[in-house]
Specification:
The protein is mainly α. It has nine helices and no strands. Helix content is 88%, strand content 0%. Helix 2 runs antiparallel to helix 4. The termini are far apart. The mean pLDDT is 92.
């Protein structure tokens, strides 16, 4: 997709901006799949939700690859426009730290090295930070194109609502067991 966008639009400002928007959207959808996989399985048991939960690691790694292309497009935009966008977006840089750290620890050997508790904290904080980053970034774009960004913001909000519902259900089940 990335190469096709640049082939169609060129390696120029317009091409980089289209690539940035496209990779942000694909990254968001892949992220959402990983973000709600276990939640959906807990709330609604089906073949689809089982597939999502089973493959959430691959969705997460696919998200990381998509967002790596997003980073390349941002760097490409900085090069073709001589803008210094890469260094000034500290929130985005922190997001990339989480993406790299979570991807690096998504495999059994590195997860074991990190330890279960540290892995859990990293992935929980990282996922919620990325959810917040996507929600914030796409909410800012609503004025630009409400038809394109409303579904993304809606899906992000729905994902959080589902996670809250699943958390309540888990708490209720834990109290009933005790």
């Amino acid at each position: 997709m990335f190469a096709l966008i640049l082939l169609i639009h060129g390696i120029n400002e317009q091409g980089m901006r289209v690539a940035i928007r496209a990779t942000a959207r694909t990254s968001c959808l892949l992220f959402l799949g990983a973000f709600v996989a276990s939640t959906l399985r807990r709330i609604w048991s089906s073949k689809l939700t089982e597939w999502l939960r089973t493959n959430r690691r691959y969705l997460g790694v696919s998200f990381a690859v998509s967002h790596a292309y997003h980073a390349l497009a941002i760097i490409g935009l900085a090069i073709v426009t001589a803008e210094d966008a890469v260094q000034t977006d500290h929130g985005g840089n922190l997001g990339y730290f989480f993406i790299i750290a979570m991807t690096a620890t998504s495999f059994q050997s590195t997860a074991a090295w990190l330890g279960h508790r540290a892995w859990q904290i990293l992935h929980t904080v990282g996922m919620y930070y990325l959810w917040l980053a996507f929600t914030y970034a796409f909410s800012l774009r609503l004025n630009e194109s409400i038809l394109i960004y409303t579904p993304f913001v809606g899906l992000l909000i729905l994902a959080m609502i589902l996670r809250l519902i699943a958390s309540k259900l888990r708490s209720r089940l834990n109290r009933e067991i005790i």
